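Ticket #4471: structure export looks truncated?
Reporter: QA, pipeline team
Priority: medium

Steps to reproduce: submit the single chain below to the structure queue and open the exported record.
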Amino acid sequence: MKTTFTARHFEASADLQQYCRDSVEKLEQFYDRIVMCDIILEPTPSDENPQQAEIIVKVPRKILTAKESASSYEQAIHNAVETVSRQLKKYKEKMHAVN
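Actual output as written to the record:
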């Protein structure tokens, strides 16, 4: 799986980048034919949840996305990975139902 990382309007630390990459790699346990994964982190104007994480996962014939805001980038990434993992499970079930 090819992974790209983008931090908009701030400089992401190496630790944060590694945390994000490690988190999305876990998605492969739900579906092993993921083509590509884009991670986009950016600050939001919200006072309650100022950090936002977006994950865009490309699988054959479909693009899955999740956008989550939280008080930290780590929490936002965690929530987004959970959302995408649910989507992947649903997608995998549909693909097996078709075959």
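Status: closed, not a bug. The export was complete when the record was re-opened. Leaving a note from the reviewer for reference: The mean pLDDT is 95.
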